[in-house]
Every structure is written in structure tokens, then in C-alpha cells.
């Protein structure tokens, strides 16, 4: 089963091709079968006619002229007549359907004592025995062999040229049928391929162009339903972003007043610092909400440099007080959403700072499969392998040492969304020696047809 084509177009075309090939082969077989029986009947009638004419000629001819008559028949028609000898070395003919049918017709006309051979005394041909004086039907086989003769027709009379012209016509018809089948199947599957491409774009968070609603009724209904679903999702996403932005904006106004009142009204420096920290944490959560709700709308940059974005992110991290070591690798330019990818790298570095501490490493490199990797490594407590997928979901945090920092649990969800936007994925795996490796895996310079999810 692994050797079968994977696409619907190839599988359907393969099945139709197989069906048409079987139909043409069956038609040729039936033609050959139906053609053999009439040809056997025609040859049998020829043998009977030649035997009867030869017998009549020999009986009517003077005995002195019989030898000349037989020689003339051999020279003109290739028909030889020889007396049957007891020492003749005879090879019987084959038991093919053609030969069996021919012998049965000849026997019915010449009598049951008629004998057949394919080779007599080393000479190959169509050999048939006959008597100058036909025996009664009740006479035993082999009686009165003195007037029994062999009549030999050339073997070419039983041969038949293969009908290559019919085969050529069959191949031409089959080729035309396969071309039409390919056209029909491609027209049926093209809307499905367009739907698959649009579904991949929708899964990456993009808004695909509306599918053309044409073709058969079922395909029109499918395209119409997908377009309506895409519009509904876009509207819901816009409403969600607008709602979250409004709530976040409304919350930031009282937060600004609280920050000002704290600075002016609270005399205790310790209490003032604690209240300011709480306000900053609330402001960070609101910023994450806004970032998650905003989504991505920038244009795709087809010659983006990951290393350039990584250098800028490393500089921002160091200015924020993060101890960072950057290890750039050889990466070819490729299609990127630069602002989104910069935000993803910032989130990974900030996540490592919050939950791990210590020195953080940022690596960029090319995988053996040609994929581009951005890896952020720390020496924190890490996360269990069973929790790696759950932590990528929005508003999800762990109840362990990696969750001692503030936030709404949207940092990794934002990175996961940006990875899908590029057709890649975010991997969270344990680092040898302790810690965590957050790997942003992006497609190579030539992106695959299907986005990695």
C-alpha cells in the first residue's frame, strides 16, 4: 500500500487507467477469440474442397496422366498428394482450439476415418488423408489402405498475421481515453487542491482568498461553505481582538492613575515598591493580551535574514539585563514575517529569563533536513515531556518552579502561532545536562507543500 500514489488525482487516474486497460485488453482478447473460429471453419472448408477436387481429378484422370497432374498441383497450388505407407512417420497436430474446430468440420464432411497430421516423414504442413473410393461409414478405420492418400496443404494456410492495425487503433483509443480521463479527474480535483491550500493558510492564521464557487453542485456547495466559514472566523477573530483591545485600553487608564497615586501617596518605600511591581505585572499581562489579540497582518518578506533578526533580539535582551550568549550559524535567506519572528525570539528569551535565570544561549543553525532552527537554551528546571504540548496552548502555565513569574500564559502560545504562520513549529525539549531547549523550527528556503503543524 505504501507504493500507491498519495494524491486523489493520481489514485483516481490510476484506477481509471487500469479499468480502461482491462477493457481494451478484454476487447482484444474477445476479438482474437471470435476471429479464430470463423478462420478455422474457412480453413476446414478449403481442405474439404481441395480433397474433393483432388479425388475427383484423380478418379477422372487416366492412370498414365495422374503423375503429371499431381506434379502440376504441387507446382501451382503447393498441394502435394502422396500414397499412405505403413512406414510413414507421422506427428499428430496440436490440440489447440483452432485445430480441434478445424478437424471436427473436416471429419464431418470427409468421414470418421479421416486422419490428420502436422508432420509426415519430416515434412511439415496440413496433412489430411482421403480414399479414392470413400468407405462406407461402418467400415473399420484402416481398412482398404491401398487407395488411401495423404494430401498436404502448406502450413501457411493455417497461419494468420497478427492484427497489428487493430492493436494500433486500440492503443490510440486508449491514449485518447486516458487523456480525457486525466482532464476530467484534474478538473474534479483542482477545487479540492485549492481548498487544501486555503485550509493550510487558514490554519496558519492567515486569511485566504475566497475560493471560486464553480464546478459541480457538490464542489460549489463545498467552496461556498468554506468561504462562509473563513468569513465567520475572520469576523469572530476581529471581534475578539477589538474586545480585548478595548478591555485592555480601559484597564490601562486606571492602572496609570494607580501608579501615579502610589508614587505620590504611599510613603513607605517597601510598600510603594511592592505596589509598583504589582502594577507592572498587571501591565505586562495586559500587553500580552494585546499582543495575542493583535495577530499578524504584515507582508511576507521573501529575502529575510534570520541572523540579522537574532542579532537585534540579542541586543535588546542584553539591554534588558539578560545574560546572553549568541551563537550564529550559516542560514540562507528565506521567506519570513520579520516583525512577527522578532517578537517570537523576544518571547523565547524573556521566557527563559523569567523561568530559568542564569546565562541563556541563543543558537541559529541549519538542520540536516534543510530546516532553519532558532534555539533558546537555559539551565532552568525544565518541563516534563508530557507537558510540552499543553504549555503551548493559551492561558496555560505549570504549577512548578518554571511558573514563578508573572504573566497570562500567552508567551509560548504567541510563539506557536508565529511558527505556524511561517509553516513551522515550536518544540520544547529537555536540554542535556538540565534545562530546556525552546526550538523554533522553520521550513527551508524552499518551503514544503504542507505546513508542519
From TrEMBL:
Membrane topology term: Multi-pass membrane protein
Chief location category: membrane
The keyword Cell membrane belongs to this UniProt entry's keyword annotation: yes
Membrane-crossing segments per the record: 12-31, 166-185
The enzyme's E.C. designation: 2.7.13.3
Localization terms from the record: Cell inner membrane
HAMP domain boundaries: 186-238
Segments forming domain Histidine kinase: 246-446
One Gene Ontology CC term in the entry: plasma membrane
Catalytic activity entry: ATP + protein L-histidine = ADP + protein N-phospho-L-histidine
Keywords: ATP-binding, Cell inner membrane, Cell membrane, Kinase, Membrane, Nucleotide-binding, Phosphoprotein, Transferase, Transmembrane, Transmembrane helix, Two-component regulatory system
One Gene Ontology term of the molecular function aspect: ATP binding
Name the record gives this protein: histidine kinase
Organism encoding this protein: Rhodocyclus tenuis
Amino acid at each position: 500500500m505504501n507504493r500507491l500514489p498519495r494524491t486523489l488525482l493520481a489514485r483516481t487516474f490510476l484506477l481509471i487507467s487500469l479499468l480502461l486497460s482491462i477493457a481494451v485488453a478484454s476487447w482484444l482478447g474477445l476479438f482474437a477469440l471470435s476471429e479464430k473460429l470463423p478462420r478455422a471453419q474457412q480453413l476446414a472448408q478449403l481442405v474439404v474442397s481441395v480433397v474433393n477436387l483432388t479425388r475427383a481429378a484423380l478418379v477422372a484422370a487416366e492412370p498414365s496422366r495422374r503423375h503429371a497432374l499431381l506434379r502440376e498441383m504441387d507446382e501451382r497450388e503447393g498441394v502435394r498428394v502422396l500414397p499412405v505407407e505403413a512406414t510413414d512417420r507421422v506427428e499428430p497436430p496440436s490440440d489447440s482450439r483452432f485445430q480441434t474446430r478445424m478437424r471436427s468440420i473436416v471429419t464431418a464432411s470427409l468421414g470418421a476415418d479421416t486422419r490428420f497430421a502436422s508432420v509426415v516423414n519430416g515434412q511439415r504442413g496440413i496433412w489430411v488423408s482421403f480414399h479414392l473410393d470413400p468407405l462406407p461409414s461402418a467400415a473399420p478405420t484402416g481398412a482398404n489402405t491401398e487407395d488411401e492418400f495423404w494430401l498436404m496443404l502448406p502450413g501457411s494456410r493455417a497461419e494468420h498475421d497478427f492484427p497489428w492495425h487493430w492493436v494500433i487503433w486500440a492503443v490510440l483509443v486508449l491514449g485518447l481515453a486516458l487523456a480525457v480521463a486525466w482532464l476530467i479527474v484534474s478538473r474534479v480535483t483542482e477545487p479540492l487542491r485549492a481548498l487544501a491550500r486555503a485550509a493550510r493558510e487558514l490554519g496558519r492564521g492567515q486569511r485566504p482568498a475566497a475560493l471560486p464557487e464553480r464546478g459541480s453542485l457538490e464542489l460549489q456547495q463545498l467552496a461556498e461553505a468554506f468561504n462562509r466559514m473563513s468569513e465567520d472566523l475572520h469576523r469572530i477573530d476581529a471581534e475578539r481582538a477589538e474586545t480585548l483591545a478595548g478591555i485592555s485600553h480601559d484597564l490601562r487608564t486606571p492602572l496609570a492613575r494607580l501608579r501615579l497615586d502610589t508614587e505620590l501617596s504611599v510613603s513607605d518605600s517597601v510598600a510603594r515598591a511592592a505596589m509598583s511591581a504589582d502594577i507592572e505585572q498587571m501591565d505586562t499581562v495586559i500587553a500580552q493580551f494585546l499582543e495575542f489579540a493583535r495577530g499578524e497582518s504584515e507582508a511576507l518578506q521573501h529575502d529575510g535574514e534570520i541572523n540579522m533578526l537574532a542579532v537585534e533580539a540579542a541586543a535588546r535582551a542584553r539591554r534588558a539585563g539578560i545574560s546572553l550568549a549568541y551563537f550564529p550559524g550559516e542560514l540562507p535567506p528565506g521567506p519570513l514575517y520579520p516583525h512577527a519572528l522578532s517578537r517570537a525570539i523576544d518571547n523565547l528569551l524573556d521566557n527563559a529569563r523569567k523561568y530559568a535565570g542564569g546565562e541563556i544561549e541563543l543558537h541559529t543553525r541549519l538542520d540536516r533536513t534543510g530546516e532553519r532552527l532558532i534555539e533558546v537554551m537555559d539551565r532552568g528546571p525544565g518541563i516534563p515531556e508530557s507537558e510540552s504540548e499543553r504549555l503551548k496552548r493559551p492561558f496555560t502555565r505549570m504549577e512548578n518552579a518554571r511558573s514563578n513569574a508573572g504573566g497570562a500564559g500567552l508567551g509560548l502560545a504567541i510563539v506557536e502561532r508565529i511558527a505556524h504562520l511561517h509553516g513551522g513549529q515550536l518544540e520544547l525539549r529537555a536540554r542535556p545536562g538540565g534545562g530546556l531547549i525552546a526550538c523554533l523550527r522553520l521550513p527551508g528556503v524552499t518551503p514544503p507543500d504542507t505546513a508542519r503543524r
